[in-house]
Amino acid sequence: MRLTKEEIVALLADEAGEEVLFRQADEVRKEFVGDAVHLRGLIEFSNICRNDCLYCGIRRSNKKVCRYRLEPEALIETARRAAAAGFKTLVMQSGEDLYYTPERLCPVIEKIKKFDVAVTLSLGERSYADYKAFREAGADRYLMRIETTDKDLYHRLDPGMSWQRRYECLLELKELGYELGSGIMTGLPGQCLASIAEDLLFLQKLGIDMAGIGPFIPHAETPLVREAGGTLGLALRTMAVMRLLLPDINIPATTAMETLHPGGRLKALQAGANVVMLNVTEKCYSRLYALYPGKTGGGAAETGRDELGEQLETLGRCIGAGYGSRKQNPVC
Ligand code: SAH
After folding, report:
1. CA-nearest residue, atom 12 of ligand 1
2. Which helix (H) or strand (E) holds 170?
3. C-alpha–C-alpha distance, residues 215 and 254, integer Å
4. How confident is the model at residue 330 (pLDDT cuts 50, 70, 90)?
5. Which string of b and e fits 252-282 if b means at least 16 CB within 10 Å?
6. Measured in whole angstroms, how far is the alpha carbon of residue 153 from the centre of its chain?
7. pLDDT of 16 higher than 70
8. Cα separation of 48 and 31, whole Å?
C-alpha cells in the first residue's frame, strides 16, 4: 500500500482510532501471509560488544555486566537442542564481538545447517567479505535494525558509529542474497512521529523481507536511564502501519513488546505480526544478555513452544510448519 508521510503520521498519532488500524493490519496479514505463526529460536551467543550505544544494556561502557561468549561447541549444542525441539529457523544474535571471525563462525554455520534449519545471523556490522563468507557457509537471513533514519539522532545514540555504513551494510546483505530483516525502536528520546514515518517509508523503499519494531525500554546502567521510553501503543501502531506498507513480509511480535506489557505479544499477533522469536539460550546466559530490563525468555525451548501453541489456538492460529521465509507462508 502507498501512504504519504502525512498519512502515516496521522495513523501513528491516532490513539483513539488504533483498534481500527489494528483490525485493518490484521486483515492484510491474513490475506497476504495467512494464519500461520512462524517460530524462531533465538540464540544469544555473546554479549561482548565493541560498541557503546546509549540505549543498550550490553554497551561496552557498562562494566556491571558479566561478559560471556558461547564457544563453537556450546553454540552448536544449543542449536542442536532447539532444532530437536522443532524450531525450523534459528537466529544467532550477539553484540559486535569480533572473536567470531569467518574462520571460527563458518564451520559453526555449516554444522548447524545440517540440522535442517534456516539460519539467521544478527551480529551487527561486518565487512562485505565477512558477510559473503557467512552466506557461502549457508546463512540464509540477516537481521540488522537501522534503529532510526534520523541521522543526527543515530549519531547521538550510537557514538563512534556511522549511519551511512549501517545503511551500506544492509545494501550489501541484500546484494549477497540474504533474506533481509531490519527495523527500528520507537519512543527513543528526541524521536518524533514524523521521524518514525520516515523510518517506515525508508524500510518500504529498501524492500526488506522482515521488520522488527520494538519500544525503547530504558536500562538502569545506561545514560538513558531517566528517559521515558516507548509505549506499547505507539510500537503496535508503527508495526501495524508497516504491515500496510509491506503486506507480505514477516513481522515479529517483538520481545520488547511482551516485556513492556504482558500480553503485548498476543496483541501484536492481532495487529499485523506473524512471527514470534522464542529465546532458546540457556537461562544463565540469556540473563546476561540484558539489552533492556525485564527481557523475557531463555531456558527450555520446548516449554515456550507448547505455551505459545496453546495461546495461538485461542486465536484460531497455528504454528507454521515450514522454514517461514517470506513468500512461502503456508496457511493453517
Ligand atoms: N549487535 C547486533 C544486535 C543488537 S541487539 C546489531 O547491531 O544488530 C538487537 C536489538 O535490540 C537492537 O537492534 C536494538 O534495536 C534493540 N535494543 C537494544 N537496546 C534496547 C533497549 N534499551 N530497548 C529496546 N530495544 C533495545
Report:
1. 145
2. helix 163-175
3. 9
4. low
5. bbbbbbbbbbeebbbbbbbbbbbbbbbbbbb
6. 20
7. yes
8. 41
How far apart (Å, rounded) are the C-alpha atoms in residues 42 and 297?
10
Contact 290, 68 (CB under 8 A): no
Best residue among 48, 53, 55, 143 to mutate for probing ligand 1's pocket (most ligand atoms within 8 Å of CB) is 55
How many C-beta neighbours within 10 Å does residue 107 have?
A: 13
Separation between Cα atoms, residue 65 and residue 60, nearest integer Å: 9
The whole-angstrom separation of Cα 194 and Cα 177 is: 31
CA of 31 to the centre of ligand 1 (A): 30
- Burial label, 132 (beta-carbon count in 10 A; 0-12, 13-18, 19+): middle
Grid coordinates belonging to 114: 545440517
Contact assessment for residue 245 and residue 19, using Cβ atoms and an 8 Å cutoff: no
Burial of residue 2 (number of CB atoms within 10 Å: 0-12, 13-18, 19+): exposed
Over the stretch 140-183, which tens digit does the pLDDT of each residue have? 999 999 999 999 999 999 999 999 999 999 999 999 999 999 99
Using CB distances shorter than 6 Å, the residues near ligand 1 are: 55-56, 93, 95-96, 122, 124, 144-145, 147, 185, 214, 216-217, 219, 256, 291-292
CB atoms under 10 Å from CB of 116, counted, come to: 9
pLDDT tens-place string over residues 129-147: 999 999 999 999 999 999 9
Strand, helix or coil for residue 123: coil
C-alpha cell belonging to residue 47:
554479549
Task: List 43's β-bridge partners, or say none.
Answer: 92
User: Residue 135 half-sphere exposure, CB side, CA atoms within 13 Å?
Assistant: 18
pTM, two decimal places = 0.97
Residue 41, beta-bridge partner list: 90, 278
Report the nearest-CA residue for atom 18 of ligand 1: 56
Compute the distance between CA of residue 324 and CA of residue 332 in angstroms, rounded to an integer: 13
The residue type found at 106 is: C
